[in-house]
Amino acid sequence: MLTVFLFAALLSKAQTTPSAVNQVKAVFLYNFTQFVTWPPDAFPASNSPFVIGVLGNDPFGAYLEKVVEGETVSGRPIAIRRYAHANEIKNCHILFVNKENPREVLKELAGTAVLTVGDQESFTRSGGMIGFYLDKNKIRFHINPKIAKAANITISSKLLRLANVIED
Amino acid sequence: MNSIQAKLMRMILIICGSVLFVACASFFIYEFITYRNISRNELATLGKVTALNSSAILLFDDNEEAEKTLSALKAQQHIVAAALYNDTGKILATYPASLQPNHLPAQLLDSGYSFEGSYIVGYEPVVEKNKRVGTLFLKSDMKAVYNRFTVFSITVIAFFLLVFLLTYLFSRRLQRSVTQPILHLAGVAQQVSDRKDYSVRAEKKSNDEIGILTDALNHMLTQIERQNGEIKALNTTLEEKIVMRTWELQQANHALTEQNEFIQTIIDASVDLIAVLDKDLNYLVLNKQALHFYKFRREDVVGRNFLDVFPTLKDKPIHINLQRALQGELLHMEAYHSQMNDAWFENFFIPLKDKDDQVDRVLIIGHEITGIMKANEKLQQLNTELEKSNRELEQFAYVASHDLQEPLRKIMTFSDLSERNTHNPEIQKRYLQKISSAAERMTALIKAVLNYSRLSNNNNTPLNNVDLNDIVEQIRTDLELTIEEKSAVIETDVLPVVKGIPLQMGQLFLNLFTNSLKFSEEAPHITIRVRPLLPEEVAKNEVLKKDTDYVLIIFSDNGIGFEQKYADRAFSIFQRLHTASKFAGTGIGLALCKKIVESHGGSITVSSEPGKGTSFFITLPYDKKQNPTLTQTHSKETGETFIR
User: Fold this and answer.
1) Cβ(B552)–Cβ(B532) below 8 Å
2) What residues contact B522, with CB distance under 8 A and at least 6 apart?
């Protein structure tokens, strides 16, 4: 199901909400859960859901829900949360930061076990962990493993192989 | 000579070779299967590793990274094709990058590795966090297997050859310890059998079974040598004995041969015919006399069957007697006439017995008695003649005493009467006339008797050709007066010329004519018919000889005749069928006729009926050539009478 959409998104960019690029990004957001390990204390309770959050303007709309529907991460159900302000963020595991200037938010989140994903070119240099970018009409991503490590988040080498690794 | 070596060698090599072959082959098969599986497992391991590294690539749809990952397969040179599919079946990357689609499977399988022809094909699921995200396809050739196999084969063959060679070398050396003593034994045995030299001994080289065999052989040779010696010694004695016996036998044989020859000489010297036949009537022995008699050669008869030699004698008395003699009967055949040489034999059939007292042969002794038989025959003939003449003489004596006494009595009576009547010369003269006529009659009687007796006593007169026509003609002239007086008619065929005494022939016909003219009351009619006698008629008449031609003369009249029952008496001397008072005669005429005809080798019979006439049938030998005109056609009707 997921790939069908992804496929469709790749074929035609000019789609209804969300755009094909955003659809791919939504899928990628979910796929990251497969190659990233969070510390156990990232979850308040054993049955706490795995939370994917979107900070700021939500480019995915209901599509993101569709992507994660029925899926789990290490047995935990996936919950989608949308935050308007950084202070709303609590018990979030993957956070898509859609802000003009994410530096402040990122500074605030530094040290917490939240995999921060951004859209901007400089996102990983500004303290973000994973940043999407477009290369030859294909969505790729930068990863800053140092920051992830600082947040006690382990990123699989498999994922690192696919990424453009940023070393400060 | 080397056969046992070769056999042993072959045996070892065959065993070793087959063991090696089976070992290598099993190893080979095992290795092949194992290595194939290893190759498959290697491919599977490679697949698993690659698949593990491919999950993120598939999830993040990274073609470049996918190609990079697959290109790492280069390290494995046997991989010929690979492809990475995502969970929708889309190919993310292939190896090599420029892979032709025909190397890719038509249908994706779930998972697993298998052999397809000379390739190993595998489908490895790509899984991340227990989720199937795609499939890795791998295809490897089997060159690795084959290469390894080739190397392995060469090694095995080399190993095989090496082991074989080693086996050969070792066994060559080792088998010697077994074969060498056997060959030695065989050599000794050969030597013994070739040279018959039993003094040879085999050398004992070991204490195993061959050692025992060697001892046994040596022991055997010793035994044979000893026995040989004994046999030789025995042989020598035996030979001496044989020489002795042979000499003795030769002596005995010689004596026997001499005796045999002596017996044979005696048998051959016998004037009797001697033959011995066996149970089946095969000739065993024939003496010289028998061979001479039958004009046989000994080798042509001895061993042959009696009936084979004389087929015509089957079931004849001699054959029957032979068989009877074989039953044990001693037979004496007093007179046997052999048809072969017209000889007579007195035959003896003597059964010969074997040592079990069983008759197994028969001896015939034939004593020739032809001379005796011939003499006997002559004697018998003479005797018959003598008897006959005796009879005649008796008859003659009787008749003479009776018939000659009658005129004598007359003479005595009338001379007595004349004596008493001397006074009457007339009467005396008449009586003297009576005396004279009686004396005349006596003279005639005596003359006739003389004639007859002369005929009986004189057989040596030479025979001449007598033309019976002349004879009859002469008689007709002599009897002319009587014929005229009685007005007799004489009718005659042309008569033959016969061999005979003319005077006697004349007497014969004179008597016949006189008789016919005498015994007739009216004018006599006399016919003479002639024809040759048929051979069957000759055969019927036992007086006549078979090989002679006869002529039949039938002399018939129409006179007073007589009863046929007196026919035999008619030819007896002094027999008169009619009274002297009525017909004058001496009673000698027909007896004389019979005598004449018989002395000429012929026969005479008579056929008569009172009042009708008489026919005389006279047969006489004659020469056909002298009487060419005489044919069978004459007087058939009269011939019938004769035949009857």
Assistant:
1) yes
2) B558
Cβ contact B121:B139 at 8 Å: yes
Answer whether B60 sits within 8 Å of A162, measured CB to CB: yes
Check residue A46 and report its DSSP letter: T
Answer for the pair B476, B490: CB distance below 8 angstroms, yes or no: yes
Q: How open is the CA angle B609-B615-B619, to the nearest 5 degrees?
A: 145
Residue window 35-64, chain B: list those with CB within 8 Å of chain A: 53, 55-57, 59-62
Inter-axis angle of helices B502-518 and B468-478, nearest 10: 50
Say how far apart CA B288 and CA B98 lie, in whole Å. 134
Taking the C-alpha atoms of residue B384 and residue B405, their distance in angstroms, rounded to an integer, is 30
- Residues B336 and B346 sit within 8 Å (Cβ to Cβ): yes
Beta bridge partners of B260: none
CA distance B104 to B95: 10
Q: Counting Cβ atoms within 10 Å, is residue B595 exposed (0-12), middle (13-18) or buried (19+)?
A: buried
Q: Kindly indicate the confidence band of residue A15, based on its pLDDT and cuts at 50, 70 and 90.
A: very low
Six-digit token string for B201 = 């001994």
- Please give the mean pLDDT across all residues of chain B: 84
- Type of residue numbered B614: T
Q: What is the pLDDT of residues B384-402, one digit of tens each?
A: 888 877 877 777 677 666 6
Task: Taking each helix axis as running N to C, give the angle between helix B425-457 and helix B589-599, from 0 to 180 degrees, rounded to the nearest 10.
Answer: 20
Backbone CA torsion sign across B443, B444, B447, B449: negative
Residues 6 or more apart whose CB falls under 8 angstroms from that of A20 comprise A8, A9, A10, A11, A12, A13, A14
Q: Is the pLDDT of residue B637 over 60?
A: no
CA–CA gap between residue B476 and residue B517 (Å, rounded): 12
In this structure, are residues B360 and B353 in contact, taking their beta carbons and an 8 Å threshold?
Answer: yes
Q: Tell whether B130 is within 8 A of chain A (Cβ).
A: no
Interface test with B, best of A67, A161, A164, A165 (most B CBs within 10 A): A161
DSSP label at residue B533: P
Whole-model pTM: value is: 0.42
Structure tokens at B563: 């009863």
Residue with tokens 């598939």: B58
- Strand A164-165 with A138-143, pairing: parallel
CB B59 to CB A161 under 8 A?
no
The dihedral sign for the CA sequence B53, B54, B57, B60: negative
C-beta of residue B615 within 8 angstroms of C-beta of residue B597: no
Structure tokens at B540: 């019927």
C-alpha–C-alpha distance, residues B256 and B254, integer Å = 5
Q: For A105-112, which contacts have Cβ atoms below 8 Å and span 24 or more sequence positions?
A: A105/A55, A109/A151, A110/A147, A110/A150, A110/A151, A111/A150, A111/A151, A112/A151
Selection from B399, B491, B495 nearest residue B452 by Cα: B399
- What is the complex's ipTM, to 2 decimals? 0.81
User: Cα(B509)–Cα(B501) distance, rounded to whole angstroms?
Assistant: 13
A42 interfacial to chain B (CB closer than 8 Å): no
Those residues whose C-beta lies under 8 Å from the C-beta of residue B601, and which sit 6 or more positions away, are B545, B548, B620, B621
pLDDT digits (tens, 9 = 90+) for B606-632: 988 888 889 999 999 888 887 777 765
Alpha helices in B495-620 (DSSP H): 502-518, 535-540, 589-599
B53 with A159: Cβ contact below 8 A: no
Cβ contact A161–B56 (<8 Å): yes
Return the H-helix or E-strand segment holding A45. none
